[in-house]
Design goal:
Number of helices: 4
Strand order of the largest sheet: 1-2-3-4
Number of domains: 1
Order of helices and strands: HHHHEEEE
Structural class: alpha+beta
Helix content: 25-40%
Largest sheet: 4 strands, antiparallel
Amino acid sequence: MNYIFKEKRLSLKAKGMLCYAISLPDNWKFSKRGIMTSCTDKESSIETALRELEEHFYLKRERIRDKGKFNTLYTFYEVPYNLQTNGEKTTRRKTIRKKTIRLKHLQ
């Protein structure tokens, strides 16, 4: 996870958001409101950090439809996914699906 701390293109807010998201337990129910309960940031600030992570390839957000309802699939990367090569196993990602965080190893 040290790569993120050397990243000069990201604000401290975005770096903190990435570290926070990756540190959450696998069974944590993800939501912007949930994050707001653990910090002083408002929803717009959290969205700004998420958007910044997305712009720099540390986050992928996908809208998925499940049983007639739309959810967002969040996948956080410790290293930008556009820099990863096939077969690289040193990078972890955390996927948030249906508001549940799961940690997976890239293969």
